[in-house]
Design a protein that fits this description.
single chain; alpha/beta; Rossmann fold; Dihydrodipicolinate Reductase, domain 2; 9-stranded mixed beta sheet; 6-stranded parallel beta sheet; about 30% helix
């Protein structure tokens, strides 16, 4: 069986998460890591934090190539793919350089800071005939995957509400710089916006209101997505003060046959049916990061397009998030997405 040799660029929270997950993918191997921090290259990730309950234990990198720069790694012919877990403002240049060097690319969400950068990445992947996939891990989370399957046979969606909240991150200064991350709302709610794009496509228009004060750790929003055949669809949440506020995510979706609800920490969806009965739909157990990386490896090795997470939709999610933020900046003005 062929093996995909992967280099992980960046050993912050997400890079460390991916590095650990690659060791569990049968047809892939963590071949290299890239970081400007010698301490992290030695496997010491004790200073890496995040908003999910993931370990910060040392990682064994004794059999892994170590590079201080991206250029060194891309020059190594032994590397087949680059897994980009760098700050968002570095996604596009790193991805384009890797694709030109003949490497497949998995790039963490958000795909880039602008739609123009997203298009350049997609064009580079086509020109160099390499796999490009955005790391929209929500598509591989059991609750959302089950929701998508239920919606495929549920008829029109009458109402949907998606909320995702966390503390402003104290572990990565770049996340609080909108020039590098796009801001808290952009970085966090790209998950839920991407899910909406994957199910309903781009809305006709959006309207959003909220508040932003990044120095105080506040960046919140409530966005209405207007679809001709579904709705109202609302995406809400953001950063709610630094450090101590707990991470949470949830959804509530109303269809004619049932209402479907879930909150983080639950091991089952709650279904409230039109006949008045309710039931719990127990979710299958799986690590979404391992499922995401495994799917990317399969696509890269086989040459199949990543249809479960196509880069064109990741680009649309960026476009839609930027439109939502523009509406908030305009005091809730409804903006066309066409």
């Amino acid at each position: 069986m062929p093996t995909l040799n992967v280099a992980v660029a960046g050993l912050g929270f997400m890079g460390a998460t991916h590095a650990r997950a690659w060791d569990k993918i049968p047809n892939a191997r963590l071949a290299a890591v890239i970081s400007s921090d010698p301490r992290k290259l030695a496997g010491d990730l004790s200073n890496v934090g995040g908003n999910l309950d993931r370990p910060a234990d040392p990682i064994d990198l004794s059999n892994v190539a170590k590079f201080a720069t991206l250029e060194e790694a891309l020059a190594d012919p032994a590397i087949d793919a680059l897994d980009i877990c760098l700050p968002t403002d570095r996604h596009a240049p790193a991805a384009i350089a890797a694709l030109k060097a003949g490497k497949h690319v998995l790039v963490e969400k958000p795909m880039a800071l602008t739609t123009a950068e997203c298009r350049q990445m997609i064009e580079a992947a086509k020109a160099h005939r390499r796999t490009l996939m955005g790391g929209q891990v929500l598509r591989f989370v059991p609750a959302w995957e089950t929701l998508r399957a239920l919606l495929s046979n549920a008829g029109p969606v009458r109402s949907a509400f998606f909320r995702r909240r966390c503390a402003a991150p104290a572990w990565s200064a770049w996340l609080s710089d909108p020039r590098r991350s796009g801001g808290g709302v952009f970085d966090l709610l790209i998950h839920d916006v991407d899910f909406c794009v994957s199910v309903w496509g781009m809305p006709d228009r959006v309207a959003a209101r909220g508040y932003e004060d990044l120095p105080r750790g506040i960046d919140v929003i409530s966005a209405d997505l207007f679809y001709p055949d579904a709705g109202p669809i609302v995406v809400a949440g953001g950063w709610q003060h630094p450090k101590s506020y707990p991470f949470s995510m949830e959804f509530s979706v109303v269809t004619d046959p049932m209402t479907i609800e879930w909150r983080s920490g639950d091991d089952a969806l709650r279904l409230y049916r039109a006949n008045g009965e309710s039931e719990s739909g127990v979710l299958f157990e799986a690590d979404p990061f391992e499922r995401e990386l495994s799917y990317f490896a399969d696509c890269a090795l086989s040459g199949a397009p990543p249809d479960l997470c196509p880069p064109g939709q990741s680009a649309q999610a960026v476009e839609l998030m930027l439109k939502i933020l523009e509406s908030r900046a305009r005091g809730g003005e409804a903006l066309s997405c066409n």
